[in-house]
Predict the structure.
Amino acid sequence: MDALSQDGQHDGNDVIAPDYSNVIDDPNDNRRRKKLTREQLERRRRRLRYKRIVRVILALILAFAAYLGYLAVSAFVMVKEAKGAVSSARQLQSSVDMSQGTVNKTLMMQSLDDLSDHVNGVYRQIKSPGWAVLEYIPYYGKDVRAVRDTVRVANDIADDVMPQLRNAVNAVDFNAVSLKDGTVNLSGVQNAATNLEIADTAMNKADADMQAVENGHIGKVSEIVEQAKRIVDAGDGVVDACSRFADIAPSILNLDGSSQARNYLILAQNNAELRATGGMPGSWGVLTVQQGHIQLQGFVPDTTIAIQDQSVVSLTDEEQGLFSDMMGRIAQDVNLTPDFPRAGEAAKALWERTHDGQQIDGVIGVDVVALRDMLKNVGAVTMSDGTVLDGSNTMKVLLHDVYARSDDSDWQNEFFSQAAQAAFDQVISSGNLMRLGMGVVSSVQGGHISFWSSHSAEQNRVDGTAISGGLNDTPAKPAVGVYLNDLGQSKMDWYLKRSVSTKLDHENEDGSKVYQVKVTLANTMSADEVASTPQYVLGDLANGMQAGQIGVNVFNYAPAGGRLVSWNPPDGKKNFDLLTTHDGHTVGALQITLSPGQQCSYTFKVQTIANGGQSPLTVDQTPLLR
């Protein structure tokens, strides 16, 4: 303890010790803190709890606001990228000039790159967890899932298909692709085959994924999804067709190094007398191709091909029951079947039997609509009698006017053969293969041009495409078939107007769908026209028909893997005239006769396979004139 100075004062240098005498060190002493009552403690706890709740609510509000801000910014970015994608798609479309048959290769490649980048941009936003959680919202979450799945498919196309298409485009020299002096040049097309095959595989998967996307509850969303399904399905068809063409075109055109020339039989079909694939094959010609050089040997009327005592091909019981053995004995009846590959086999056998065994490597079917489309793109031709055929009058001249000019059937057949010859000569010498090819796309899609190859490897690649003309055997892409054959041995089908429509009736629990199909047929000839119509047009009145009547056999095919559910035939009939099968399809056949001015309609229902991921029902039918 520090000492005090003598006068009782601290020395200035001394340290003063603290005084603890008043400090309470008893923890039980109530003077240490005031004790709170239970009510006071409860009020304090409530205040603390309220503060915590307020803090949590404020935090949630801030988090939700931030989330909404994120969605807003993300949506803005997606809209911007989507607009860019639309712009790139339009630019891609503009890179192809259909009217001139030209391709801006640089613009096409750049557009593919830009389109891919913009689609990737949309996907980067919508794949995030911030959008994923919205799928769990009751009811509307299904719409979010549909949109996200659609964008995912688009991104797969951007990543797996578009780069391969870009490489394929880069491999082809579009300026060199031509048909000049009768010789085809497919510069670079074969080099693009590998890239197109990869793109085709990826596009097939994308199409399957897109078709499996389920619609939501919001009408606009479902509309967008359905539109996307149609676009992707169409794109799949285009890529698939390009891949197959690049794969087999070199061998078909004898550009694969083979020294053996190819011979293709051409069937020019007359739509005024209907057959299932288009019209009665009234003119037959042979196209020879050697190392890309094309030469047309000429057309002859079907009457020059001798009728056989027995079928030249082996017919199934189903074929004989539906079409009789005439499809294998008579030149004008080889395409009573709607299955063009079978018609091709019969035509090849008939020609080889009656033309000293000349080898036929394939059969090409074209009708008057296809001839019109060809002339529309390569220019008019002038017949030996001065008649000019062009894109505006070809159908009327060949299917109507020619019969009014003469009742000599031999002259009519010769005129039709000359017209087919002139049209193909014009095509061969046209020079612009790209323009010609683009111009006949609609003819192929409408069934007006068909092709069958006798070489199995090539035919395997042709099968399933629009140009094959075969029956639809793909249950996941269901199609109902409506095919017509003329009954009256006449040229009255110029006056036949018809339509086929479908609508979804209902969907079953197993995913199968039932559609209603409505077929309407009308005879547009007036009663006053009958007397002035040449007898050759009216026909020989076979099967008890009267002048001016149109008689047809109509074959109604259920989709592959499906069935006919119910039917309401016309004219008070309770059933089809024949109910049978053909190559796995259920078929209901009707015989219908229409007097001048008469119209009839009938309906039937078909069911597709039990698969919810299938495409909507489409219609395959005998090609339409109008």
